[in-house]
Amino acid sequence: MRLASTFVLHGFQIGYPAFITWLAAAMASQVIGSEVVFYLGAGSLVLVGLEYGFRYSGAREISLALENPARIAEVIGAIMLVQTGFFFAALLAAFVAIGIAGPSIGVATALCVLVFMVLNGIIPTWIFIALSLQREFLLLTAPVRLAGLGVALVAYHFHSIDGLFLSQCGAILAIHLSGLLLLHRKGYFALSFRPKLAASLLREGRDIFVMKLGVFSYTSAGVLILGIVQSPEIVGAFGLCQRLVTAMQQGSAPLFMTAYPLSVRYASGERELATRLLRLNGTALLFSVGMSLAIALGGPALLTAIGLDHYEGITRCILIMAPLPALVGLSTLLVNNAVLAAKRDTIVRHVTLTTGAIGIPAYFAMTRLMGLFGAAATLTIIEACVALAYLTICIRENLLSSLFYWRSAHES
What pLDDT, on the 0 to 100 scale, is given for residue 372? Predict the structure, then answer.
């Protein structure tokens, strides 16, 4: 039941903003200029990387303090402090983008920031998953989410981008307040912010931050470069295609998110969790492979159904992107095993820096070859190559960590 509610909650968390993004892009694709795509992409990349690192360090602290509600309340207070900072940083990025590009795209820019807010949230969903409160949180907020979705469809029908923006702001605020009330009722939240603890959590998450910034920079770099050299319509088509694959890729995330607190406890000495961890990770990997097959078999038909198949190379894009969920799922599994087996936090940094060193120069070099295959298809080919390089490095690091673990066991 807990895993099922995690899947439903995560579906809301990923699928809902993805759908809102599609509605927004349908209304604003003619308004958002390519230079705005560049600035927003660069800013959101840093913010998302920071938030991911902070997310994992916070989840680790909560997982280790499950028997201590007072400690959890302190950690959640620190999380709230930093997440509020991320919120204002996103708003600042929006105002900067509006100042650079002009007020004519102000609402569209604000909508992009809104999508970032929905994806991450002032109260991250993983807190409720770590505390096994995902079912209560889902039941509490599902009416608000469904109402927000209904209002978004009405706004889309009347072509009101302002209505879409304002309705989703209201829905987000209601969801966050509901989450706060739930945490307070369970004794996990009090208004006591700890700046030192927040700074400590940020420091602990720096390796994950480096990983997300490095590994996922190749994904964002594709949109950034495409935004410089192509029209907004092609950028929008490529971005929507990428959003579809990312949403499908996140299908296995509930399994990995459920496994993460267990991984922390396993690494802290609870070895009896090994069988459960292996089962969860294996299921997540199979799920990722299934997502890849679904994209490969159904992606072209979906693009035709929604009228995107006329864009240059878009069908090739979706086919080249199809293996990414399986590659990312296997890579995640291998990195987790490597870090847990050898307790080498630097593995994350090694994997990331090597991947970034391969991927980013390749992007800029391959922009010269866009005329051969089409811009979008060329960028997607590079994306697939970097994902394969990332997987190769993960396998190498996993083998090294296994060797390290084997030697340590024999020496002791």
Answer: 42
